[in-house]
Amino acid sequence: MIAYLLSGLGCDKRAYQRLVFPDGITPVHIDWPSPVKDEPLDQYTNRLIKMMDTTNPFYLIGLSFGGMMACMIAEKTHPVKTIIISSVACREELPVFMKFLGKSRLYKLIPNRRLKKANPVICYFFGAHDPESKILLEEIIQDTDPLFLKWAIGSILQWKNCVCHENPIRIHGLRDRILPPRKFKPDYSVMDSGHFAVFDSANMVSSFIAQEIQSC
Q1: Any idea what the CATH number is for the domain that residue 173 is in?
Q2: Hey, how many other C-beta atoms are within 10 angstroms of the C-beta on 108?
Q3: Based on the structure, what is the number of domains in the chain?
Q4: pLDDT reading at 91 higher than 90
């Protein structure tokens, strides 16, 4: 069975490279298509769905921003199971500062060049402490289209999704500084990892995913 993978904001499929999937599961990465200017998330979601085969049973796995998109996709396609990593399922779970930035639209003042550098502050918030994590994060950010980043940041901060009816399985680092798990309880907690748990604690995340898939 296919497991569709959606990466995070400023990340790509390399963030998943350490994961190991159970036998019989074929991971398929969905790359982010370039958004149309001011494209609403619902319209973008429909374009992502067209990149998937939803006529057969499938799993959906989303990381950070990809987890938010996974929840929206799940509402329309009803996968066997939706698993979100370092993510939230609805707007109410976003930190207060993100809601403020979205309402004030201050994020639009961020220069594009600032979005292309993995500085120590970004590494701190992602929880990328070891050299390999820092190098990967820097490479991913440098390779990401800043126009997509700006659109995605705006989409997250103005996210309208108020309820998630599909009840995704949550895997979350308890030291996540970007999306701290204060307004929800993870199904699986990664004790010593932050927002980059999918890479830093890949063995543990892989085991959690395997448990959910094998329970079906």
Answers
A1: 3.40.50.1820
A2: 11
A3: 1
A4: no
